[in-house]
């Protein structure tokens, strides 16, 4: 005779399960036993047994659950039921969805299983006791004896010495979780479930699980709706329960078989607004109170019964589309989610409105996203999105709109495009391009505003009552020790000085570009930068050179000629004019006698500096008195001396109209 190693069967169970799984299995078997007995006064008792050696402390007042006892007054373990228990994959309960395997979960979560039962055989009451074997026999230590007298049949199943993951400690949570697993038994109006009584010494009184379900507002679990629906020609039915005191749980879709939960999926996977509890106001003793609840959809049907796996942890048709089955789990869940959306249309609409308001508020500070608010499907966005979530979603919406505009422009300009149709589409496309252009401009102007604010902050004294170093200010305008080869085109902010400088083709900062001359400004000061445009042979294109002095520094007007910025600018220009300057590839930069040069000196000016500029360097002041200029005609050089304050003020004034138009002031 072939043998089966019981522990091997248990170890090979791949189904996901918890310690609640064997309890649910035992309750299901108890319900079957009561139904089979034909009695209408069936009762099932679930008794929780805790660690008797536990010593209570203030932090932990409840002992761990060690064992669970499930008793019923059903038909008992007569020969037919005993033989079925002793047969792996028994077919006895196949007609009601039984797979003959569920009892093996007993030993997966508990070390020992003991059964005692009273049954009738040949018109006599008999008593049977046995253990669930762990080696080659399912039933071991089987003992049957006659009972001279007995009042009723029934079975006591003891799940002893829990192993691995523990049950919850709070008895109300335990009872609630058990009830959720067997809610399908209470979903059929034509079926009366036996009384299920939960007992625990930690409770003041037993909890009748049936009493937790009802249609009254004070029922902890309410059956709110029951209906049928069809998915791809497959007829199914659902029961919608409202569950109070959700204890951080979520609204779910639960697919069932044999009145047991098999798979579950959070509704917020399909409708993000179901991720949190719902709230309602009720009258309690004449007083208005608020309470939370969640929704559970239990789905039933022959299709589910026929396709549940042996372990009853999944279905043969799987989650995604399978050509062998007409309907997938996802098909069913999506159909239920649409039902849920209609049932809670008002709540979903309100929560979507709240999300939209968050996006609109975000767009007030990030105005370039305003044109894309209407592109967002707020029902598909999770509740309580963070700023990072909002930024990512709006950025994606902008990208998708811009991509669509490019594709539409391409189609509109196609040679095969009908003129009348193109003219009609062009009007809409122009509006879309206008919105996109507005967005891009707004984003760029907002970026510039941030740069100017940073620039202003850098020009202020620090906590030590000193100005920041030259490098701090220099790096805002153009990164030191870099050039155009390692700085992206928009990686500099030379527009602060002059918008025309955005057109330069090459920039070098803090790098020696001279072939022979090692001359360079003081390394502690801002270093020179050189730019040229339109290629090496465009000799008529301007060349600009810059010299920066730290804010608050004035001593350059008293130093030797090799340290003053005017002499430095002239020296750099002469070096370039004499061909003593290389391109990035090492070739000489060629200029002509007509090449214009522009020099920029950015520094602060006190009375001594002003006198030095006007009396010693022959500079002329600008009308506002914060800048000076000088022309050295013999080398085509114009030098501008600009104070840091004037630089910031002029840049701000140039941008003010944009800030005002785009609502960025303040």
From TrEMBL:
UniProt signal peptide: none
Histidine kinase/HSP90-like ATPase domain: residues covered: 23-102
The Gene Ontology terms for molecular function here are: ATP binding
Pfam families recorded: HATPase_c
Which keywords has UniProt assigned to this entry?
ATP-binding, Nucleotide-binding
Q: What is this protein called?
A: ATP-binding protein
């Amino acid at each position: 005779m072939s043998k089966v190693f019981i522990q091997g069967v248990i170890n090979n169970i791949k189904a996901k399960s918890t310690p609640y799984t064997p309890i649910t299995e035992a309750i299901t078997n108890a319900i079957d036993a009561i139904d089979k007995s034909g009695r209408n006064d069936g009762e099932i008792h679930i008794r929780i047994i805790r660690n008797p050696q536990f010593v209570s402390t203030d932090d932990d007042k409840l002992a761990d659950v060690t064992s669970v006892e499930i008793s019923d007054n059903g038909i008992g373990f007569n020969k037919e039921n005993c033989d079925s228990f002793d047969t792996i994959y028994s077919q006895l309960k196949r007609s009601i969805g039984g797979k003959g395997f569920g009892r093996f979960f007993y030993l997966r979560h508990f070390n020992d299983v003991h059964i005692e039962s009273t049954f009738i055989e040949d018109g006599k009451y008999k008593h049977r006791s046995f253990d669930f074997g762990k080696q080659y026999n399912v039933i071991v230590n089987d003992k049957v004896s006659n009972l001279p007298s007995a009042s009723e049949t029934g079975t006591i199943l003891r799940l002893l010495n829990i192993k691995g993951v523990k049950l919850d400690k709070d008895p109300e949570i335990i009872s609630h979780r058990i009830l959720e697993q067997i809610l399908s038994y209470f979903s059929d109006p034509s079926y009366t479930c036996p009384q299920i009584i939960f007992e625990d010494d930690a409770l003041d009184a037993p909890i009748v699980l049936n009493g937790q379900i009802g249609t009254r507002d004070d029922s902890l679990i309410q059956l709110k709706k029951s209906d049928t629906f069809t998915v791809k020609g497959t007829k199914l039915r659902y029961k919608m329960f409202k569950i109070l005191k959700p204890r951080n749980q979520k609204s779910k879709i639960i697919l069932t078989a044999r009145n047991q939960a098999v798979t579950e999926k959070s509704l917020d996977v399909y409708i993000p607004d179901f991720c949190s509890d719902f709230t309602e106001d009720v009258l309690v003793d004449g007083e208005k109170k608020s309470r939370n609840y969640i929704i559970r959809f239990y789905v039933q049907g022959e299709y589910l019964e026929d396709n549940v796996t042996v372990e009853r942890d999944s279905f043969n048709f799987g989650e995604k589309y399978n050509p062998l089955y007409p309907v997938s789990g996802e098909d069913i869940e999506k159909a239920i989610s649409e039902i849920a959306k209609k049932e809670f249309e008002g709540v979903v609409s309100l929560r979507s409105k709240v999300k939209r308001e968050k996006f609109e508020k975000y767009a007030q500070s990030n105005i370039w996203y305003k044109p894309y608010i209407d592109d967002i499907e707020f029902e598909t966005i999770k509740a309580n999105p963070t700023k990072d979530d909002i930024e990512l979603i709006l950025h994606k919406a902008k990208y998708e709109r811009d991509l669509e505009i490019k594709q539409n422009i391409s189609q509109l300009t196609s040679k095969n495009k009908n003129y009348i149709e193109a003219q009609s589409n062009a009007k809409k496309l122009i509006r879309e391009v206008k919105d996109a252009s507005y967005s891009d401009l707004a984003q760029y102007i907002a970026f510039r505003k941030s740069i100017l604010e940073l620039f202003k902050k850098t020009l202020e004294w620090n906590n030590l009552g000193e100005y920041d170093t030259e490098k701090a200010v220099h790096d805002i305008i153009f990164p030191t020790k870099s050039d155009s080869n390692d700085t992206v085109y928009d990686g500099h902010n030379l527009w602060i000085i002059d918008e025309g400088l955005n057109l330069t083709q090459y920039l070098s900062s803090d790098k020696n570009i001279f072939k022979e001359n090692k001359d360079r400004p003081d390394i502690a000061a801002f270093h020179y930068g050189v730019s040229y445009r339109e290629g090496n042979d465009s000799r008529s294109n301007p060349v600009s050179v810059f010299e920066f002095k730290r804010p608050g520094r004035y001593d350059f007007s008293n130093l030797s000629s090799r340290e003053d910025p005017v002499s430095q600018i002239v020296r750099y220009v002469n070096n370039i004019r004499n061909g003593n300057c290389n391109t990035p590839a090492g070739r000489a930069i060629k200029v002509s006698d007509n090449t214009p040069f522009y020099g920029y000196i950015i520094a602060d000016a006190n009375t001594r500096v002003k006198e030095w500029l006007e009396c010693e360097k022959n500079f002329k002041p600008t009308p506002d008195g914060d800048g000076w200029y000088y022309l050295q005609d013999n080398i085509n050089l114009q030098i501008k001396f600009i104070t840091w304050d004037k630089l910031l003020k002029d840049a701000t004034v140039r941008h003010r109209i944009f800030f005002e138009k785009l609502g960025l002031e303040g």
